[in-house]
Specification:
Number of helices of chain A: 5
Oligomer: homodimer
Structural class of chain A: alpha/beta
Mean pLDDT of chain A: 96
Radius of gyration of chain A: 16 Å
Largest sheet of chain A: 6 strands, mixed
Chain lengths: 188, 188
């Protein structure tokens, strides 16, 4: 998606260790007009799919997900990053490569269940650990994962390859080939 | 706001200790059409104010805030609930009455600074502790707080009274008078 790629080049910041900071327009300060445009692009890319629910994970996934839900007039559920001591919850554990620790992610069984056809939306796809956690929750719920849409995919961390090799319909609006030498190289 | 009040009566759940659960349409599963309608109502209520930035706090504030930002074509910044070890951050400490513990809230100085005219949007106003944390961050940044908009105010926890007595323009789209006996009583 051209507008996003241009914005990453203009406002993204690259740091040692494959870190891309986009907190100017995606995950701390957010550009709502760009968010809406990206949501329109997801609607286009998943136009052939039957979806009844948008799923995301707090906190940075919420803004793009609510825009997609708004356009499609579908409910949006955000998974919570916390150990759930509550009943009626589906829970999974995700390993964060960046932070080198695990965390729990949970969703109420009231809002993800059999019969749901789910489109998952998130800001980043890197090694795919969070995405795999979501797949686990969708499986546990007996729901169907229709597709996964990400604003930015870091191709060199290979989470996308793994998801696609499972047959999952993955769409990323900007694919980062490399951040070597702190230079942002985006796939055409 | 009529649509929100009706939805609270229909789908809100009340528990002992003044707890109102609205996770069916606001803070776990979200209704994006209602979110947009609530954002329109905020635009109307703050129509006389000069605003250049929307501020909120993760996670449940993000959805209503991005909708307000989208309508007004303004950037939206979400404060993060975590101890910030990073440089260039404004930090404050908030006491959570519900959880009986404190947590840190931080915003980058890049995204909140002198000259900013800020509208704060959040899902709940109860005792006002989070709101007071935001006021502290806005003060530290040398920015101006134009107003604070909440989807739901629990009047019996008096945070709204305290904010209004400071001269802050507070707007709440539904005001809960009481949850006594687990009966939801909403102000007309």
């Amino acid at each position: 998606m051209k507008a996003l790629k241009e914005r990453i080049i203009r406002d993204g910041k690259c740091f040692e260790g494959g870190i891309l900071k986009v907190d100017n327009f995606i995950n701390h300060q957010m550009d709502p007009i760009l968010m809406k445009s990206m949501a329109v692009e997801f609607v286009r890319r998943f136009a052939g799919s039957s979806i009844n629910k948008i799923l995301t994970i707090e906190a940075s996934g919420i803004a793009p997900a609510i825009m997609v839900g708004y356009l499609l007039e579908l409910p949006v559920v955000f998974a919570k990053k916390k150990p759930s001591t509550m009943e009626n919850m589906l829970t999974t554990t995700v390993y964060s490569f960046t932070k080198d620790r695990t965390y729990d992610v949970c969703i109420s069984k009231d809002y993800l269940h059999e019969g749901d056809k789910v489109l998952f939306i998130d800001d980043f796809l890197a090694n795919g650990n969070a995405a795999n956690g979501i797949i686990d929750l969708v499986d546990k719920a007996g729901a169907e994962l229709v597709g996964m849409g990400f604003l930015i995919e870091k191709a060199f961390q290979h989470g996308g390859d793994e998801l696609r090799s499972q047959g999952i319909h993955v769409e990323s609006l900007a694919i980062i080939e490399s951040l070597d030498g702190c230079k942002i190289k985006i796939r055409d």
